From TrEMBL:
<feature type="region of interest" description="Disordered">
    <location>
        <begin position="1"/>
        <end position="21"/>
    </location>
</feature>
<dbReference type="InterPro" id="IPR011704">
    <property type="entry name" value="ATPase_dyneun-rel_AAA"/>
</dbReference>
<protein>
    <recommendedName>
        <fullName>ATPase dynein-related AAA domain-containing protein</fullName>
    </recommendedName>
</protein>
<feature type="compositionally biased region" description="Basic and acidic residues">
    <location>
        <begin position="9"/>
        <end position="21"/>
    </location>
</feature>
<dbReference type="GO" id="GO:0016887">
    <property type="term" value="F:ATP hydrolysis activity"/>
</dbReference>
<dbReference type="InterPro" id="IPR027417">
    <property type="entry name" value="P-loop_NTPase"/>
</dbReference>
<dbReference type="GO" id="GO:0005524">
    <property type="term" value="F:ATP binding"/>
</dbReference>
<feature type="domain" description="ATPase dynein-related AAA">
    <location>
        <begin position="212"/>
        <end position="309"/>
    </location>
</feature>
<feature type="coiled-coil region">
    <location>
        <begin position="28"/>
        <end position="146"/>
    </location>
</feature>
<dbReference type="Pfam" id="PF07728">
    <property type="entry name" value="AAA_5"/>
</dbReference>
<keyword id="KW-0175">Coiled coil</keyword>
């Protein structure tokens, strides 16, 4: 499309004008160029004027700045002079003050030196007096220690025999019949199977070197049973509390102190020494709460000695000893004692050392002999703070499980005053004859069992019958349900049977001996895990029924009921005598 008509006409007019007036255009161009040149000249003139004005202004400002700078410098100089003047005055004052303080310090120094000399003099005098006081105290301690050693020795040698009850002529046959009555006289109310089982187990442990374990809840009278039965048996007792931290035999036996070169005995070792003073009296040592720590750790040496204490004929001639410390240490102490005794003009310290060495070597040698009259008893608790017993301990022990306390039975029982004290001196020949009937030598029995009595020949047949039954149980039940029987059990039942017969336990009912042996020696071995086909549960239930029906006389500890409850408990994975 073309441009609009108006614009086209205007352009045409401009073209005609340009063509018509070329001279005017040239004049206009020249005028414009001259105007531009004039403007440039004017601009140059203006710029030069401004530059001159700016230079003059800078010159004026520079002069003013120099004047101000001179003024400032003069003021600073005046201030500096004033400061120096002030410092000079302060320095003079400080020097004067320092001189004054120096004079005071010199005076104080002189005074302190004099006081120091006086204090040093007093200190030297005091040190001399302290040395004299220490020497006097050492002499006092030495004499006190010597006096203590003498008193201890006198006390050990002069223990009144009245502390151990005197025995009377109570016949051994009457002991089994009167035992419950005698316990009741001491406020020990127990079921017959518990009381008689404890008596037979304790006397058997005395003769064979085994251990008796009293199992039950807290507060049923286990520890008091040990104390009171010891008195009734004409002996004495010692309760040794076990601590959970016991990990080493030294916790039970004591330890050798290398600093003082003496042995620090424990209450257990002291009790052994006390028991040895009266070898004709039974002495019960009770390890209270035995399973608070592992007896395999702290009592390993003791268990080994009890194991072989009276195992064979003539074994009593061999000394049963516990190693308390190294034999080399004992030799060293003997050598040191000989050297001290050979010296003359001994000091108090040397005399005290001789007394200590003499006491250690005479009363606490490196080996401690286990007396033949020792009966080791342990009490057990079953809770989260105790450890399980190992098969080794169970195999060497007779276990008596206490039932819960029957307060009605306790309140209904009266107190019988028994003036007689028991003596077991007549057991020796009776047990010897009884054991001879079973073709066993009995020279290892304690020396306080005397007076021979004829034993019927039926004893051997009765014992063999019971032992055959025990062997069959081991083959059919025990070897599958827990700890199998070993050779030691034969010896244990021979002794158990002989003691039961001498106590008159089997007179009324021959099954009583085997019944008590089942409770104390066989049932504690039960410990097995349930299987899917329930063969072991059925086997255990079968043995329980056989025992209950034909052999067990009384189960006041409710042991069989507890085992049956565990068998029927579907949520339980194992069955254990120990719960």
């Amino acid at each position: 499309m073309g441009q609009p008509r108006g614009k086209r006409e205007k352009g045409d007019r401009c073209n005609r004008t340009k063509k018509a007036d070329p001279i005017a255009q040239d004049v206009r161009a020249v005028g414009e160029e001259e105007a531009r040149n004039l403007e440039n000249e004017i601009a140059i003139l203006v710029s030069q004027e401004e530059r001159r004005n700016w230079a003059e202004q800078c010159s004026i400002e520079k002069k003013e700045l120099e004047i101000y700078k001179d003024k400032i410098e003069k003021e600073n100089q005046i201030k500096q002079e004033q400061i120096m003047l002030n410092l000079s005055q302060e320095r003079e004052d400080w020097i004067a003050e320092a001189n004054f303080q120096k004079q005071e310090f010199e005076l104080q120094k002189n005074w302190l030196e004099k006081e120091g000399e006086r204090i040093n003099h007093n200190r030297n005098s005091l040190e001399e007096k302290e040395k004299e006081l220490i020497r006097i105290k050492k002499e006092i301690n030495c004499y006190t220690s010597l006096l203590t050693l003498v008193e201890d020795r006198d006390r050990e040698s002069d223990i009144e025999h009245s502390s151990i009850p005197k025995s009377t002529n109570l016949e051994p046959e009457d002991l089994g019949d009167r035992w419950i009555e005698m316990l009741e006289s001491k406020n020990q109310i127990l079921p017959e199977s518990i009381a008689i089982g404890y008596l037979v187990s304790t006397i058997t442990a005395l003769c064979s070197g085994s251990m008796v374990l009293l199992n039950g809840t807290v507060g049923v009278g286990k520890s008091s049973m040990v104390r009171k039965s010891a008195k009734l048996l004409g002996g004495n007792s010692e309760i040794i509390p076990i601590r959970p931290s016991w990990l080493d035999p030294s916790d039970l036996l004591g330890f050798f102190d290398p600093l003082s070169e003496t042995f620090r005995p424990s209450s257990f070792t002291t009790a052994l020494k006390k028991a040895a003073k009266y070898p004709d009296r039974p002495f019960l040592i009770c390890l209270d709460e035995l399973n608070l720590a592992r007896i395999e750790n702290y009592g390993a040496d003791l268990l080994s000695i009890l194991e072989y204490s009276k195992d064979k004929a003539g074994a009593e001639d061999k000394k049963r000893t516990l190693s308390l410390y190294s034999e080399d240490i004992e030799i060293h102490l003997w050598d040191k004692l000989k050297l001290l005794r050979a010296e003359e003009n001994l000091t108090i310290e040397q005399k005290l050392l001789i007394a200590q060495l003499d006491r250690t070597l005479s009363t606490m040698k490196s080996e401690c002999e286990i007396p033949q009259n020792l009966i080791l008893v342990g009490t057990l608790n079953s809770d989260e703070t105790t450890y399980d017993l190992s098969p080794k301990v169970i195999d060497r022990s007779y276990v008596i499980t206490y039932p819960l306390v029957d307060f009605k039975a306790v309140l209904s029982k009266g107190k019988n005053n028994i003036s007689e004290q028991l003596s077991i001196s007549k057991f020796q020949e009776k047990v010897k004859v009884c054991m001879d009937c079973m073709d066993e030598s009995t020279n290892f029995l304690p020396a306080f069992l005397v007076d021979p009595t004829d034993i019927p020949s039926r004893i051997n047949d009765s014992w063999k019958k019971d032992w055959a039954r025990i062997i069959k149980w081991n083959e059919d039940y025990i070897s599958y349900l827990g700890i199998p029987l070993g050779h030691r059990v034969k010896r244990d039942y021979q002794m158990f049977f002989a003691v039961s017969h001498c106590l008159g336990i089997t007179n009324a009912n021959p099954k009583r001996c085997l019944s008590y042996f089942i409770l104390a020696k066989l049932l504690p071995r039960i410990s097995f895990f349930k299987d899917k086909d329930k063969k072991l549960e059925y086997l255990c239930q079968q043995w329980i029924e056989e025992i209950r029906q034909d052999y067990l006389i009384g189960d006041e500890g409710y042991i069989l009921e507890e085992l049956e409850r565990q068998i029927l408990d579907s949520g339980r994975r194992n069955v254990r005598y120990w719960g």
